[in-house]
Each structure stands twice: as C-alpha cells, then as structure tokens.
Design brief:
alpha/beta; TIM Barrel; eight-stranded parallel β-barrel; 46% helix; 10 helices; 8 strands
C-alpha cells in the first residue's frame, strides 16, 4: 500500500450543535487531503443520534462525498430499519456499517426491538436491498467484552459473513499481534473478506482510559504507565501517542493490513499527523 486510496477511512460522530456542524465541515475538508475511501458516521445507543446521523450523511452525500451511515439494530423495529434503508438507497448511499449496537442506559430487554445480533441486521439488509449496499461489520481482535468465550466470539464474527457482510472494521487496539492472530483465526474459519484495523489516536489519557474500559479495548500496561507519568503535560502525551500509534500503523500495513480506519472524535489533527507520518496522501 503506497497511498491513502483505497483503504483509508475516517469515522465521525453526529454533531449536536451548529458550532459542531461547522467544525465537522472543516475537519472532513482537512482529511480529504488523504483521499479517504469513505467517511462513516456513528449511530447512538438505541438510535439516540438517528436524526444527526441522517443529516450528516445527507449533507456529505450532497457534496459527492462517499459516506457510510452506521446502522444499529438494538432498539429498532423492522419498519424503522426498512424505512432507513429505503431512505439511504434513495439518497444513493452505497455503504453501511451494520452493528448490533447498545441499549440506552436505563432500558431493559423489552427495548431490544426486533433484532438481537448484527448478523440478523446483515441478513435483513440483504433481504430488503439485495447487493445495493457494501456492508461493513465490527470485529474485536481482543474479543468482544460480552462474548462468552473467544471461540464463541469468532464464530459470531464468521456468521456475519455467512449472512452477507462484505468487510470488517475492528475495534481499536494497541497490540498488533492481537490483530494478526485474529485475522489468521478468521481466515481459518473461512472469512476471506478484508479486516481493516480501527485506529484510535492518543491525545488524552483520561478520555482514552474511559473509552477503553467501556469497550474492552486493552491499553498495554507500559503505555498506561507512560501516559500516566506525563500528568497534565498534553504536549508530551500527544507526542508519545503519535509515536506509539504511528509505529502501530506502520507494522499493521507492513504485515498486510488492507487499510486503516481512524476514529477521529471529530478532530482532524491527530489522524492527519499519523497519515502524514505514514506518507499517506491523495
């Protein structure tokens, strides 16, 4: 891989304020310099950002930007998802990120909706829209935090492709060996599709620790201790994070990873610095 196209993508969350909307326009313009294959826009627990996701995708599509909405099945009915699929198809969107999703806090099993797992959503998308959409699904190199066992997690991952998924984007991680082992095991289970590493730049230790504890992504002990040692020295945290994540990306690409998917947190600078370090330019 010698440049950013194809294989590089950037993920955003739907902005909630007019200022956030304006900022995201600048961010995606900055990141366009790296020739992303697509931008994706997340979908809050239980559809809590449904309108924001739709608005962001609609605006980007109107600017002829390849945009992929996240679609979550937890808490959604077949009718709601069918309407969303028809809307995105009518808009001309050709890619989706299909996820199980999370229940909003404080809700119970009755709020789960008509689907239980991402594979059910993938099957539904294929049944409703055929091959119109390229379907991305999630992967967990360090095992989904709610999986009963590593074997069960891998079987669940493979089932998404049996249902019709096209490719996968992983949860972020900082251990390249976990990614390579996961890919090898997925191949042994018959998954031949691309498995793209998810990349989380390191800019704020407290925030990263909170995210990681919540989603089950491991921060290796040596990285935690080093980040903690910087205290409130944000410049040192960012410089160290650039080295760590830049080295990780270099190893992933050298080892055959098909691309990189950046979790931007609606910031252009950290992801852009990594791409520049890797020599990834349109």
């Amino acid at each position: 891989m010698t440049n950013a196209s194809p294989g590089i993508s950037f993920e955003f969350f739907p902005p909630r304020t007019p200022e956030g909307i304006d900022k995201l326009r600048v961010v995606r313009k900055d990141l366009a310099a790296f020739g992303p294959e697509f931008y994706s826009v997340t979908f809050g627990a239980g559809g809590s950002t449904r309108e924001g996701t739709l608005a962001a995708i609609t605006e980007m599509h109107g600017e002829r930007i390849a945009a992929a909405p996240h679609l979550s099945c937890i808490g959604a009915s077949e009718t709601e998802l069918r309407n969303a699929l028809l809307h995105y198809r009518d808009l001309g969107v050709r890619r989706l990120v299909a996820l199980r999703g999370d229940l909003p806090s404080g809700t119970g099993a009755l709020a789960r909706g008509d689907f239980r797992y991402a594979r059910d959503l993938v099957e539904f998308v294929r049944r409703e829209t055929g091959d119109w959409f390229t379907i991305e699904v999630a992967a967990y190199p360090e095992i989904h935090p709610q999986a009963r066992s590593p074997a069960d997690d891998l079987a669940n991952f493979a089932s998404k492709f049996a249902a019709g998924a096209d490719s996968a984007i992983t949860q972020y991680f900082y251990n390249a060996d976990a990614y390579f082992r996961f890919v090898d095991e997925a191949r042994a289970h018959g998954v031949a599709a691309p498995i793209v590493p998810g990349i989380m730049p390191i800019t704020n230790y407290t925030q990263l620790a909170r995210f990681s504890d919540g989603c089950g992504a491991e921060i290796p002990r040596w990285i935690r201790l080093k980040l903690a040692s910087f205290g409130d020295d944000q410049a040192s945290i960012r410089a160290f994070g650039l080295d760590v994540v830049g080295d990780l990306c270099e190893r992933l690409l050298a080892g055959g990873a098909p691309g990189l998917h950046f979790y931007t947190l609606n910031q252009s600078g950290p992801s852009a610095q990594i791409c520049q370090r890797l020599g990834l330019a349109a």
